[in-house]
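Now for a chain:

_____
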Amino acid sequence: MPDNEIEIAVWQPSHAKNAITRAGDNANERNLVLRQDVIKIKSDSLAGNIKQFLSQIGEVFRSATQEFDGFSVETITINAEINAKGGLTLLGLGGELGSKGGISFTLKKK
């Protein structure tokens, strides 16, 4: 592997028989079939995607760190997942797959 590439394990849709299946919560939901792949991403591309993601998150939380009812937000922890193209996706609660991978960013007020 070249020095400027990073290997990342990602989950992608699959039609393979040996893939992991997550059954829906009710009989009307379709099953989600995934396979884990290892992809290679150029480190400068990933760095650019992380910089863009954090810039966008900064815009979202800029007003959230202001004081309210005598309290202020000192730190914000954000969890993101890297997709197969090296982009970052914000992870929310109640995710269908219960992802445990990805990146956590903790932003602290200066």
